[in-house]
Amino acid sequence: MQLRGKQRLVAGVVAAAFVGAVTAGGVTLAQANTAAKAPVSSVQVVVGPESEPGQPSSARCPQGMGAINGGFQAISFYRSNGGDPYDGVTANAPFKDGKGWVAMLLAGKVRARAVCVPEDQAPQAAVGPVSEEDALSVARCPEGTKAIAGGYVRDTWYKNGYGASLDDITVNAPNDSGTGWAAKQFHGKTVARVLCS
């Protein structure tokens, strides 16, 4: 079966991630690279700035590139005096246009990261509707494409009178058919976002 450009790149990136996980188990990097043939030189990781407390950090891909995946690193994550989590991850998603990644904490500081590839190999981005409270938001891929990554951005987020989180994300995954991305909060409203190829 002949793979198109995006499919070859996605397969290569997935294979490269697999290599990193299993090299210690006996698969050599040279063997895996021969099998994967991933165009590693065209993949670039962009690290966003450290956010202010409770504010978003955005990792924007360079001109002519789009995000294929992303994530975040919490710089500070608030806890109660008893040590319980006081904070929450309120956004961890691709940009609406697919050209970067955004992350945000309820109270702490965060730094977003985006894995970027050339635009002609980058997936398409889609945004779901704002969910009802405690309900799913599903971002649907264009016809003929499948979800390869995704995330969510909160629309509302419950907290107590002291500012501590009373909410959490309970769903952040591709839907059962793989044609979209689903997100759901324990109490509040959320918006799913998906990258499709």
TrEMBL record:
Signal peptide: 1-24
Entry keyword set: Signal
Name this protein carries in UniProt: Secreted protein
Organism encoding this protein: Streptomyces xanthochromogenes
